[in-house]
Amino acid sequence: MDKVKELEAMDKLFDRLFPICRSITGEGLRETIEILSEYMPLEVFGEPTGKQAFDWEIPKEWVIRDGWLKAPDGRKLADFKSSNLQILNYSTPVQTKLSLAELEGHLFSIPHLPEAVPYVTSYYKERWGFCLPHCEREQLVEGEYEAYIDSEHIDGELNYAHSVLPGETDREVLISTYICHPSMANNELSGPLVAAFLYNRIAKWSKRRYTYRFVFVPETIGSIAYLHRFGTEMKQNTQAGLVLTCLGGPEPLNYKLSRSGANPLDHIWQQLLERGELEGKTRPFTPAFGSDERQYCSPGFNLPVGQMARTVYGLYDGYHNSLDTKEAMTIEALQRSVEELERLLELNEAEGYYVNRSPYGEVKLDKHGLYPDINSPINRSQSSNEVMDNRRQLNIILTILNYADGEHTLTEIAELCRSSIAAILPFIEQLKEKGIIEGPYAEKGRLFK
Q1: At what angle do helices 331-350 and 264-274 cross, to 10 degrees?
Q2: Pairwise CA distance, residues 164 & 215, whole Å
Q3: Each residue's pLDDT tens digit, 260-272
Q4: Scanning 36, 87, 206, 287, which has the fewest C-beta atoms within 10 Å of its C-beta?
Q5: What is the CATH number of the domain that holds 141?
Q6: Domain ends where: 306, 321, 350?
Q7: Mean pLDDT of 92-112
Q8: 247, β-bridge pairs
Q9: CA quadruple 44, 50, 53, 58: dihedral positive or negative?
């Protein structure tokens, strides 16, 4: 799929998913998974109401059919069929008439964003309510209001899905995102859209060293339920991982480091930034706020999982409200995210331990046509002086060969070359093609042949 067709497909998928009333359980969640399954193969799972998942219990399934709030003059102030954000998500049913004073405790708005309809949830405490623009709330008059929400909580199930794209090894890269927010763009649909189209790009690679596990869950309770089912094998097999969220907007990529520091993407990312080969920002790990990386990085699992965003949650006006639209996010930003993440994962494919097959003394480079000319983008950016360029090439090759000892990762070798993986990868590939080095291996200490 070329980039124009990919962009058009992303735009079409967005328009299909945006109107759906999603929550942590229910038909909206299942409909979202069903649509995504048209773009990638998904295996769907269900956890029944009441099932224990570590310290949590699977909640009842929420069914929502309709809801509205009428003013004393009969006007609809909120209408579920016009905007699913206007009903408190997971609201209990109600049909009543009440005064403005009685109604106030069931209304939600954002004073500093008077035009926005807030997104408000009450998953684990029973309540009902409506969400309004604050400018409209301030205009409410005394009188009798009519509140109606046609909903119920039933014994059902919590759903999630995954797709496992096999590679040459059982070692896995986790790509996880959430599918539980209703009509919001950056804070909901950016993650699933990027994940789906990233899947299709990786599926077309000529070879994959790693197996890729793509996970779609309702946030928090979904990842906890997923870990309850798959956590043991993930703890054994996960090599690296990313939680995808808020990947739209004009800002550069913004990476939250893993808790353990064992995620190779942490080191690749920081190298690219330090060498000026990628524009982006870095955040430290914190369990205090964020997305499902908090569950994957909980101390019992401590998986090597970071989080990638662009326009970060909580730092833009549209966060958790109706201002979070496709126009504010842009589909073009999502495609940039797909491209940049694909490149990051390609570099991760090369990370690991390499072995010099002729480790006794220096390799006679001219014998292999490697002294001193290798064409690489680094030559064109370092200097216009050919002698200096050739010296730089020679230094990199000699450093690679000396530290391809099965004890140093490619990231570490790149640091010793005063470069990044991206810059030395052409040299690595040429040395492999000539049979001078082999790798990458996942574990250190590989014996010389």
Answers
A1: 110
A2: 9
A3: 999 999 999 999 9
A4: 206
A5: 3.50.30.90
A6: 350
A7: 98
A8: none
A9: positive
Q: Per the structure block, which two tokens stand in for 62?
A: 């929420």
Q: Please give the DSSP secondary-structure letter assigned to residue 288.
A: S
Q: Name the amino acid, one letter, at 307.
A: Q
For residue range 395-408, list pLDDT tens digits in order.
999 999 999 999 99
pLDDT tens for 165-214 read: 999 999 999 999 999 999 999 999 999 999 999 999 999 999 999 999 99
Q: To which residue do tokens 């005063």 refer?
A: 418
Q: Is 105 helix (H, G, I), strand (E, B) or coil?
A: coil
In a domain, 225, yes or no: yes
What distance in Å separates the CA atoms of residue 145 and residue 143, rounded to the nearest whole number? 6
From start to end of 71-142, where are the E strands?
76-79, 94-99, 107-108, 130-131
Containing H/E element for 240? Answer: strand 238-244
Size of the chain, expressed as the number of residues it contains: 449
Which of residues 330, 350, 370 is at a domain's end?
A: 350
Q: How confident is the model at residue 373 (pLDDT cuts 50, 70, 90)?
A: low
3-state secondary structure of 223: helix
The reply to whether the predicted model has a pTM over 0.90 is yes
- Asked if 366 and 383 touch (Cβ cutoff 8 Å), the reply is no
The DSSP code sequence of 256-312 is: EPPSSS--HHHHHHHHHHHTTSS-EEEE---SSS-STHHHHTSTTT--SEEEEESS-
For β-strands 94-99 and 144-154, DSSP reports them as antiparallel
In degrees rounded to 5, what are phi and psi of residue 14?
-55, -50
Residue 339: give the domain boundaries: 3-59+157-350
Does residue 359 share a domain with residue 236? no
What is d(CA 25, CA 30) in angstroms, rounded to the nearest whole number?
A: 8
